[in-house]
Amino acid sequence: MLEGDLRELQLAELLRSLRFGRKSGLLLLSAGEREARLHFEAGQLVYGRVKDGANLGEYLVRMDLIGQLDLQQLVAQQRVEDPHSPLGLLARRQGLIDQEQLEDALRAQIGDTLHEILSWTESESVHFRFEGLGVHRSQVPTEVHFDPEALLLETTRERDEWSRGQVEGWQVLKPREGAEPDADLSSWELLSLVDGRRSCASIAAEFDLPAAEIYHRLHQLVSRGLLIDAGIQPEDPAVLLLSSSPTLRRLGGLMLRKGGYQPLLADTPAQASEILAKTMVSLVILDEGEPERTISRLRSLRGRQHLPFLVLSRGHPRLPRGVQLLEKPVEEGILLDRLAKIVRRPR
Questions:
Q1: How confident is the model at residue 138 (pLDDT cuts 50, 70, 90)?
Q2: Distances in Å between the alpha carbon of 125 and those of 51, 160, 302?
Q3: Order of strands, edge to edge, in the sheet holding 309-313?
Q4: Distance (Å, rounded) from C-alpha 59 to C-alpha 57?
Q5: What are the structural domains, with CATH classification, of the chain?
Q6: Dist CA 195 CA 202 (whole Å)
Q7: Tens-digit pLDDT profile for residues 240-255
Q8: Torsion of CA 196, 201, 206, 212, to 10 degrees
Q9: Which residue(s) pair with 128 in the sheet?
Q10: How many CB atoms lie within 10 A of CB 150?
């Protein structure tokens, strides 16, 4: 077993050693409570993920390769019928994506994992351990391979580019009056989303690129005089999503961000109570097994007696009066339409 610290052995040297040694196994990296893993086969990278980070199915949704309903159905099938088959392969076998699209999603996920690991090395010690595949092997789509050094070089170049300037996620930008739109074609879609009301984080959620890259591109448009700070706070109503499912929390957060909401995520009623004690929210989305009890608990908090709730369920649970129900699986457009009506904002 290979083990050490990235202060003593640089990440590039470690990846080079695994590639030349044609190692197969799992590289585990940790910095404090944060963890990541990189899977290798014969020295090539085949998968990577940050602990509690987005899984491959979520990348497929973010990149508009499959829909939210497709993912929810794939997860259900994977859990019941074939728990050992990677979700990406299930999607390909069903014809939802092709091999090239699977590779694109995996490249994005591994790239984001490398971005996260590199960010840890800038400020703290990062411990690593390389071990055999063991029980993790079933989670690896072994048909796709990437050169680890090439991916790391690409990631390092991106980080260097982004470090030259970024806007903040909470900022609201607007087009500068009288500015000539001389931006290149790749910036037109980005410019079209800047309306003087949406936060930069909401705009970034529309793209299948890392938020840092979108923040850098927006900064470039500001530097070229095409955009200016709107001088206002974002009009993003806060919505609390309470769910024990990490996948639903992340996907729900993405849907909310794209819809112009500020997502607050909780995995237990206790955590939701802590958030509500400190933050005013417009609505609570509840994905719980006993919604009536949870609603009663949260509404018992001071000043939260009339808090609106939207319950996600596959059945028809007993609910207090005034609480709305949305059947699962949840479609993005239907969810955002329902939210707009509850919080009384245009959709």
A1: very low
A2: 17, 21, 43
A3: 262-266, 238-243, 283-287, 309-313, 324-327
A4: 5
A5: 2-162 (no CATH), 173-229 (no CATH), 238-343 (3.40.50.2300)
A6: 11
A7: 999 988 878 888 888 8
A8: 120
A9: 4, 29
A10: 12
What single string gives the DSSP state of each residue in 244-284? S-HHHHHHHHHHHHHTT-EEEEESSHHHHHHHHHH---SEE
Are 77 and 69 contacting, i.e. CB atoms less than 8 angstroms apart? no
CA-to-CA distance for 101 and 47, rounded, in angstroms?
15
Structure tokens at 24: 């197969």
Bond before 86 cis per omega within 30 degrees:
no
Q: Pick the more confident residue, 290 or 81.
A: 290
Cα 258 to Cα 144, 226, 340: the distances in Å are 30, 23, 13
Report how far residue 252's alpha carbon sits from residue 243's, in angstroms, rounded to the nearest whole number.
10
The predicted pLDDT at position 82 comes to 62
**What's at 17, amino acid-wise?**
S
pLDDT at residue 103 in the model: 92
pTM listed for this prediction: 0.78
Give the span between the Cα atoms of 275 and 113, in whole angstroms.
28
Distance from C-alpha of 74 to C-alpha of 80, rounded to nearest angstrom = 10
- DSSP letters, 170-218, are T-BEEEPTT------GGGHHHHHH--SSSBHHHHHTTSSS-HHHHHHHH
**Amino acid in the structure at residue 72:** Q
Residue 321: band (very low, low, confident or very high) from pLDDT cuts 50, 70, 90:
confident
CB within 8 Å of 197: residues ≥ 6 apart: 172, 230, 234, 235, 260
- Phi, psi dihedral angles at 164 (to 5 degrees): -80, 5
pLDDT in tens, 254-309: 888 888 888 999 999 999 999 998 888 889 999 877 788 888 888 888 888 888 89
How far, in Å, CA of 240 to CA of 253, rounded? 9
